[in-house]
Design a protein that fits this description.
The protein contains 12 helices and no strands. It is mainly alpha-helical and 246 residues long. α4 crosses α5 and α4 runs parallel beside α7.
Length: 246
């Protein structure tokens, strides 16, 4: 398994799309934090609390999630597009070992980069708002929550890429499930509609970023629901990967 991990690490760091998508994630996190923080501060009637400053600072996560999902798709679909997946499967005949290696390497890279980007976004927001006090524990929770959320979005993209194998189709599916459909579910009528909306992909997963609770879900329970969505996409992709030809 060590050789598989080393191979996947070489692949992910040697492809230009990795650098561009990770750089986009960092720029979105820092840029949106700076723009929104400056805008909110200029229109605020009074001082902004440390908690509010961190919530505003991490608003870029909703857009950065798409960059991470795109990278997750490209980690697997790029090999299908170029035909390199055949070489990979010749070197690692056990397909689940190959997929596991991709998941482990992607998760490690994503967690590190997204944690740094999230901490930087909070730092930018706090520097602009200059709240009276900021709790170190809340900063750590917010940065960790944001990095976990963005990593989960990337793994969602990896699962969809494994399932669909077609780069544009998988990216469009990720955009729909992460950005487009979640707000639309809030228009569903009745109690069942509210339940569906609360438990739908990023509606549930994003709670870990804000640290807020809605209805029956808290930050960690909402993130757990989102992980179920991620696991479902990944498992479906893994089953088809074992059954389909390369």
């Amino acid at each position: 398994m060590t050789d598989v991990l080393r191979s996947e690490w070489t692949k992910i760091r040697s492809v230009r799309s990795t650098l561009w998508t990770l750089a986009t994630t960092v720029v979105l996190m820092l840029g949106v934090s700076a723009l929104l923080s400056a805008s909110v501060r200029s229109t605020a009637d009074g001082p902004v609390s440390g908690e509010q400053a961190m919530i505003v600072s991490l608003q870029g996560a909703s857009l950065a999630a798409l960059a991470m999902a795109t990278l997750g798709v490209l980690v697997i679909s790029g090999e299908y597009r170029t035909g390199a997946i055949r070489t990979s499967l010749m070197a690692v005949p056990r397909r689940m070992s190959l997929l596991t290696g991709k998941i482990v390497v992607f998760t490690a890279v994503s967690l590190v980069v997204c944690l740094l980007a999230s901490a930087g976004a909070i730092g930018v927001g706090v520097a602009i708002f200059q709240p009276a006090s900021v709790e170190a524990g809340e900063v750590a929770r917010s940065a960790l929550g944001s990095s976990l959320y963005l990593t989960a979005c990337g793994l969602f993209g990896l699962g969809l890429g494994t399932l669909i194998r077609h780069t544009p189709g998988a990216i469009v599916s990720a955009i729909a499930l992460i950005l487009v459909l979640p707000p639309l579910t809030t228009q569903l009528p009745g109690e069942w509609g509210r339940t569906v909306s609360e438990h739908f992909t990023t509606n549930a997963g994003a709670l870990i970023v804000s640290g807020q609770s809605t209805g029956s879900l808290g930050p960690w329970s909402g993130f757990a629901v989102y992980l179920v969505w991620v696991a479902a996409a990944m498992l479906a992709g893994a089953v088809l990967m074992r059954r389909r030809d390369a």
